[in-house]
Amino acid sequence: MLEVSIQKTLGNFTLDTSFKAHKGVLGILGSSGCGKSLTLKSLAGLSTPDEGIITLNGQILYSSESKINLPARKRNIGYVFQNYALFPHLTVFKNIAYGISHLDKDTQKKKVVHMIQKMQLAGLENHYPSQLSGGQQQRTALARTLITEPSLLLLDEPFSALDSHIKHLLEKELLNIIKENYDGIVLLVTHNMEEAYRLCNHIMVVDKGKTIQIGTKDDIIFSPKSVAVAQMTSCKNIFKTQVVKEENGYYTLKSNALIFKSTKKHTLKSSSVYAGIRAHTIKVFPSNTVLKENMFSCHILEKTDSIFSTTVIVDASGCILTIEIPKSDSLKITNDSITIYIPPEEIFLMDANKG
Ligand SMILES: Nc1ncnc2c1ncn2[C@@H]1O[C@H](COP(=O)(O)OP(=O)(O)OP(=O)(O)O)[C@@H](O)[C@H]1O
């Protein structure tokens, strides 16, 4: 297990993060400049915190109190950088052997050959990084790291420079490589929510140097605890609302003239809360549909077609909502009004005083 509680101030920025990570992939999700890379660098021993403690599987890597600060090479941590940072003047074989150069030549060779086979790099041993595709570079970088048998694997935006087709292929490949060849803790830095959801078991959301929520990926996406987490996970509908009634496991809420029901998932501290509704969870029906509970007749303000979906912005009794519907459902829009249904179980409520 990895346990982290560290603080570091750099100019106007303060990193103040505390979290635990177990075996499996923990995604660190946050916008640019929120402290993701600084967190990884502090773990790897490339940046020294001002205060705090880092332990990995019971061993103290850093403790300001005990004045312990293990050098990077003694931390048993593998770090794959954004651009893979392969040595350009070394072949694939030599890049992979780099981290085990302290072993005797025979053992080195055996291990590298084994790793080259596992990573499907056979035939490329004598190639230089500039002669490799993006995927081959990624596999070489992973091989160079995994050969050192790290207890913790740090991946800093491993797909940021790639186009979406290659990205999907490499994501799958990376997951398979990790599943088949690595049994430790993985921290994966990303600012892409979809990528975090596809690759990680747990997600930690970071904002301005602080951990604002950590949990299973479904917790983070479907039960964000604050407006900041909802925004960070790309929730398109977040608005202030008042609780007017609580009854039979439902809250009745009012926002402008829109009165709607939400399933009660937790007790709210105040009657003034924020509601979040993900754009794809709102259903649409033709404008002449008979209205039932949580169905509303809306005026369409804007409609934008993408390749596979349509985004509609509607005015629902003074509440402006963004809705994403499959292309086929856009046929239900025949004039400038439409009926929408907001499933009460899809609404998440967040206390106004958080985030
Ligand atoms: N040496 C430094 N001196 C002053 N400020 C620094 C230094 N290094 C980093 N920072 C600041 O610390 C903050 C966190 O940087 P960090 O690289 O961890 O962000 P990040 O979340 O990884 O961002 P990105 O997604 O853009 O890579 C930033 O605001 C950055 O400007």
UniProtKB/TrEMBL annotation:
GO molecular function terms noted in the UniProt entry: ATP binding; ATP hydrolysis activity
Pfam families on file: ABC_tran
Source species, domain of life: Bacteria
Keywords from the UniProt entry: ATP-binding, Nucleotide-binding, Transport
Cross-referenced InterPro entries: AAA+_ATPase, ABC_SmlMolc_Importer, ABC_transporter-like_ATP-bd, P-loop_NTPase
PROSITE patterns for this protein: ABC_TRANSPORTER_2 (PS50893)
ABC transporter domain sequence ranges: 1-233
Gene3D superfamilies: P-loop containing nucleotide triphosphate hydrolases (3.40.50.300)
Annotated TM spans: none
Name of the molecule in the record: Molybdate transport system ATP-binding protein
Organism: Natranaerovirga pectinivora
Lineage: Bacteria, Bacillati, Bacillota, Clostridia, Lachnospirales
